[in-house]
Amino acid sequence: MKVTVVGAGNVGATCADVLAYREIANEIILVDIKEGLAEGKALDIWQKSPINLYDSRTIGVTNDYSKTANSDVVVITSGLPRKPGMSRDDLIETNAGIVKSVTEQVIKYSPEATIIIVSNPLDVMTYQAHITSKMPRNKVMGMAGILDTARYRAFLAEALNVSPKDIQAVLMGGHGDTMVPLPRYTTVGGIPVTELIDKDKLDAIIERTKFGGGELVKLMGTSAWYAPGSAAAQMVEAIVRDQKRVFPVCVKLEGEYGIDDCYLGVPVILGKGGIEKVIELDLNAEEKALVENSRQHVKEVMAVLDKLN
Ligand SMILES: NC(=O)C1=CN([C@@H]2O[C@H](COP(=O)(O)OP(=O)(O)OC[C@H]3O[C@@H](n4cnc5c(N)ncnc54)[C@H](O)[C@@H]3O)[C@@H](O)[C@H]2O)C=CC1
Ligand SMILES: O=C([O-])CC(=O)C(=O)O
Questions:
Q1: CA of 290 to the centre of ligand 2 (A)
Q2: Is 297 a catalytic residue?
Q3: pTM here?
Q4: In CATH, which of 1.10.150.80, 3.30.70.260, 3.40.47.10, 3.40.50.720 is domain 2-142?
Q5: Which of 36, 169, 286, 299 is most buried by a 10 A CB count?
């Protein structure tokens, strides 16, 4: 399997590293616009292989998309990260141009690839890749839900003093402050979380999750990369190994949840066909209202993108 990661910055290089050491793909191409950066990071990851015992080959290139030809999956992480005080939406103008030009190059050399967008603002950059690539919705998707649920699960594991492995959760909506963690679909070793934690504590964890990206931006002056890079690699793994994993993924909704033509995070089945199924949950009135609020926000940012194109 051949996987390309565009953007050799914090998230892209982490993703390539996880893909390599977990041997998710045997050939990993790292691309960046900055001369030498992708070559250097790919070489560093390759030189780690005798230590960590893997044989996936990582190769870096500066803007040479011919080397990405016939990739099975392409992860797009190129673009600016936010700084303290910024929202993800503030990145739209710069990142839309980057995602558009990168998608054109990717599709030229790998017309059959499945594309995973990571660049922010996530839902709207997924929309940008979709309109540029003109690919069906099952092959163009955005990574956010695995990361957002991972934050939620990690906070819960800490509060309950249990292993994060045993916490399962669903989260829906856009990748922003309007995201919707769903306590009714959160379990701890099969036990509904509501039986194990007070409502006040759970509400505080939900609020922390919604602003989880911003918490890290404030701490580091730039955004997170270990969990985001690993989350993107987990999506690649589900596709290349045809695992049929159930994850929250950003996808174009076409009538599901009564929503049309909007890119939102929803639970899906991820396998070799990309998004093989959108799972429709029977949301209650309160959950529906929260998802609708998120939909409206994403739609507003999609309208900004329409003006840029
Ligand atoms: N979806 C999500 O959950 C997450 C999204 N992000 C987003 O991912 C993006 C990348 O974040 P970081 O890796 O931290 O940033 P970074 O600044 O470390 O890396 C971005 C890389 O993209 C490269 N780049 C810029 N234009 C390019 C082009 N036209 N072609 C190829 N490469 C190009 C830059 O040279 C840089 O190396 C940001 O937009 C960030 O907001 C970050 C974390 C989570
Ligand atoms: O917060 C950011 O800007 C990056 C991101 O999307 C995240 O870490 O959730």
A1: 20
A2: no
A3: 0.98
A4: 3.40.50.720
A5: 169
